[in-house]
Design brief:
By secondary structure, the protein is α/β, with parallel strands linked by helices. Helices cover 45% and strands 18% of the residues. Strands 3-2-1-4-5-7-6 form a 7-stranded mixed beta sheet, with helices on both faces.
Length: 221
């Protein structure tokens, strides 16, 4: 798979802003510490974020107490996603990240809420002015209670969306939209190349340090 961006890649937001008409509202499930909430607010001017953990929700409210354009809703996405979605006439970018990945310690009985979230979105919105991005695409179908990537893509297609996997995200845009997925893919590759050069410089630096240490040790012996 190579390098991939952990979380929501900013270049996806730039692309989405170009694709969606008019003012764009941002909605997020899975606030955690609020870093992505801040990023969505930066790109779209507002964000409604949903967090089921009372502790994380309280932390996010404190963090954004002086940022009125970010609204934190406490509860599960099944309970409050419908009220977080904007008016159907307004364009919307939706980031779904309420599911726990491999390093998440949650209830042993909880299931991935993704299909329920999608049903809520499909019931309230048209694909023509909505872009959906799902985190942890590599985990789909690999854990108990998680839908397969085929199930998710089939649900998207049945509701007027086309999909593509970029980095670790599944991106969905309207089949009626000239989504320019090729440009999005090219941007992801540029990020990977940049990461490769960054890592390679670090590797070369480590090798040089090791060589100096070996040289000093050999002189002492």
């Amino acid at each position: 798979m190579g390098f991939f961006w952990e979380g929501l890649p900013p270049y996806v937001l730039s692309w989405a802003r170009q694709m969606l008409p008019g003012t764009v509202a941002a909605v997020e499930t899975g606030t955690f510490r609020g870093d992505t909430s801040a990023l969505l607010n930066e790109y779209f001017g507002s964000c409604v974020t949903i967090e089921r953990s009372p502790a994380f929700a309280q932390t996010a409210r404190a963090r954004f107490a002086l940022v009125p354009s970010i609204r934190v809703l406490e509860g599960t996405s099944s309970e409050v996603l419908a009220q977080a979605l904007p008016d159907a006439q307004l364009s919307c970018f939706i980031w779904l990240d309420a599911h726990g990945m491999y390093d998440y310690i949650g209830s042993s009985t909880e299931e991935n809420p993704l299909l329920t979230e999608l049903d809520t979105i499909f019931a309230a919105r048209s694909s023509t002015n909505t872009i959906i991005a799902i985190d942890d695409a590599r985990g789909l179908g690999t854990q108990p209670g998680w839908p397969s990537i085929g199930q998710v893509c089939s649900a998207m297609q049945a509701n007027g969306f086309q999909t593509i996997c970029i980095d670790d995200c599944l991106i969905a845009a309207s089949t009626d939209l000239d989504a320019d997925f090729w440009n999005l893919y090219q941007q992801s590759r540029m990020v990977e190349v940049s990461a490769l050069f960054h890592v390679w410089r670090a590797v070369k630096r480590s090798v040089r340090i090791r060589q100096r240490l070996d040289s000093l040790l050999s002189k002492r012996s």
